[in-house]
Here is the input.
Amino acid sequence: MKEYLNVLKDNILFRGFESTDIESILNCLSGRSISYKKSDTILLCGNAVPFIGIVLSGSVNIINEDIQGNINIIARLGVNEIFAEAFACAGIKESPVTVQATENCDVLFIDCKRIVKSCHNACAFHTSLIENMLGLVARKNIGLNQKIEIMSKKTIREKLLMFFEIQRRVFHSKKFVIPYNREALAHYIGVDRSAMSREL
Here is the structure.
């Protein structure tokens, strides 16, 4: 875990903490890391969600699959991005999504209850952690609103243009690299890949 302390310094959850502080916090929160291979399932839809996951290396997809097997990629998360925090904090007993490794990756798991409740050591870091968690949830809410903005468009062209416009805003530039290949982008905006390729 020590090799990832400098990575976690840039994580929104640990904003304002030094590497030594983060090490103490992770001990307090019983943080543990697990390695996954490409295509491994990290969290399966329908399973309990007692933890928050932080991607330490590699990347993961957040996937929603309907009863007919159609896949919708809700998001792709890279290093230092967090998943399952809303479900864990809300006490949702069954995950509505699947989290899958898109490449070999390491993931840090933290028990959500240990963040929102003061520990027996009266740890001084908890107030800052809770503030950072609120900021994180707010940012994720903005991301979901952007996805709704894309999905509300009627045509493939409109969906693509809205996706590109959101990326332009994020990168503050007309030049940017998107985190998806064509198949994943089609899943993300909820359209047929061949039809999307023709539109591109």
Q: What stands out?
A: The longest helix spans residues 126-151. Strands lie at 32-36, 41-43, 51-57, 60-65, 71-77, 82-83, 98-101, 105-111.
